[in-house]
């Protein structure tokens, strides 16, 4: 059970500026879509409160947005399921193997680690923040960099939040997950009291009842971001059959990755649909 619930999702706004920024984001997203549509509506405070009968909104909440296509999935359970599915389909994991070298000869890739080497006709580099370094071995330039985000977890309580609300959601076990910062600190993985305080303060302004819950855990992790925050998909011209794939929003883009992206890598289909994500866009002055 991956604890998947597609009941929609909210983005809750504090103050007029926050609300206007959300309106502008939705309008820009509609303009960028091929159909000119984006199924996401702005709501007034009373409309939001009707959707959240068991948890009271704070006085500073001025509205928000609702998208029926959003939802929640337990990330730990999802990773376990993906690993199991990969293995059931013949995939083999080699844990703890750092790639030292990639060679390409006679249409065959040779990938060397400290303990093993592998041969393949196709190669997909999807290695997080190491993607840039490994991609250079097959003639690609994939600019990615780190952004730190911090997370807070509360103690468990009864289920009162039926929808994920942006950076606040209630897990199936009753604990609340509160996020998330956007920090340019290189590869530093420390948690900081200042940022945790800011996240907690905002969460309490949205849902005052959260002030009564104890925090039991916090951590920091690094996002993998391109310069414009959008995905990068590219095949090497120097070493055909080598692909680099990087995207922070892997879960949000799962439908694309399981269809167009897979068919492009395996069969060469849909290349035109993915061209907008080519890293050459970063070379435009």
Note down, in words, how this protein is organized.
- The chain has 285 residues and is α+β, with helices and mostly antiparallel strands.
- It folds into 2 domains: 9-74 and 145-225, D-Amino Acid Oxidase, Chain A, domain 2 (2-Layer Sandwich); 94-138 and 230-283, FAD/NAD(P)-binding domain (3-Layer(bba) Sandwich).
- The protein has helices at 15-32, 45-51, 75-88, 131-136, 193-206, 254-267, 271-274; strands spanning 9-14, 41-43, 61-67, 99-105, 108-113, 117-120, 123-125, 145-156, 168-170, 175-178, 215-225, 232-235, 242-246.
- The strands form 4 sheets. It has a 4-stranded antiparallel beta sheet with strand order 9-10-8-11, with helices on one face. Strands 1-3-2 form a 3-stranded antiparallel beta sheet. A 3-stranded antiparallel beta sheet has the order 4-5-6, with no helix packed on it.
- A hairpin with a 6-residue loop joins strand 12 and strand 13 (242-246).
- The longest helix has 18 residues, at 15-32.
- The mean pLDDT is 93.
- It holds the Pfam family DAO.
- Residues 2-258 form the FAD dependent oxidoreductase domain.
- This is FAD dependent oxidoreductase domain-containing protein.
């Amino acid at each position: 059970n991956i604890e998947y619930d597609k009941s929609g999702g909210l983005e809750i706004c504090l103050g007029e500026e926050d609300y206007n920024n959300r309106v502008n984001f939705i309008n820009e997203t509609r303009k960028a879509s091929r159909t000119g549509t984006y199924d996401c509506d702005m709501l007034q405070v009373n409309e939001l409160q009707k959707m959240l009968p068991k948890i009271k909104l704070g006085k500073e909440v001025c509205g928000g947005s609702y998208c029926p296509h959003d939802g929640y999935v337990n990330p730990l359970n999802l990773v376990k399921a993906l690993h199991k599915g990969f293995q059931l389909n013949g995939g083999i994991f080699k844990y703890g193997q750092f790639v030292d070298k990639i060679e390409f000869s006679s249409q065959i890739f040779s990938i060397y680690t400290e303990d093993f080497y592998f041969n393949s006709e196709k190669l997909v580099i999807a290695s997080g923040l190491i993607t840039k370094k490994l991609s250079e071995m097959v003639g690609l330039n994939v600019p990615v960099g780190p952004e730190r985000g911090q997370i807070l977890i509360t103690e468990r309580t009864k289920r009162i939040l039926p929808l994920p609300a942006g950076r606040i959601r209630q897990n199936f076990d009753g604990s609340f997950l509160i996020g998330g910062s956007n920090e340019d600190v290189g590869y530093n993985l420390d948690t900081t009291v200042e940022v945790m305080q800011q996240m907690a303060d905002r969460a309490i302004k949205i849902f005052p009842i959260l002030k009564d819950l104890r925090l039991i855990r916090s951590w920091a992790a690094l996002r993998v971001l391109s310069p414009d925050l959008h995905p990068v998909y590219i095949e090497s011209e120097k070493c055909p059959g080598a692909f680099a794939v990087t995207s922070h929003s892997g879960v949000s883009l799962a439908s694309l990755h399981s269809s167009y992206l897979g068919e492009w890598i395996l069969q060469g289909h849909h290349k035109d649909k993915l061209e907008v994500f080519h890293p050459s866009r970063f070379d435009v002055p």
